[in-house]
Amino acid sequence: xxxxxxxxxxxxxxxxxxxxxxxxxxxxxxxxxxxxxxxxxxxxxxxxxxxxxxxxxxxxxxxxxxxxxxxxxxxxxxxxxxxxxxxxxxxxxxxxx
Length: 97
What we know:
By secondary structure, the protein is of the alpha/beta class. The protein has one domain (28-96): Cupredoxins -  blue copper proteins (Immunoglobulin-like). The chain contains one helix and six strands. It has one helix at 6-25; strands at 48-50, 55-56, 62-69, 72-79, 87-89, 95-96. The strands form three sheets. It has a two-stranded parallel ribbon with strand order 1-5. Strands 2-6 form a two-stranded parallel sheet. A two-stranded antiparallel ribbon has the order 3-4. Strand 3 and strand 4 (72-79) form a beta hairpin. The N and C termini lie far apart (39 Å). 0% of the residues are buried.
């Protein structure tokens, strides 16, 4: 059996250290009624974020929370408080901050 690379071991250690902290901050969402979507509501386009001068400045807040989807609350993984996160526009060689 091949030995894992140093990089794989380092990644595993970082993840193992982060999991207890993430679990400590996780909150059990309140129980919600059955999802009852409302037909005909307009679709909201996600925000468009563009790199400027080769740099994309972005903050992404990913969390499990109760959000409204099609007029009804659901518990979902959200990105900046939305079901669909922003569209990130970059070119090869761009960096993000």
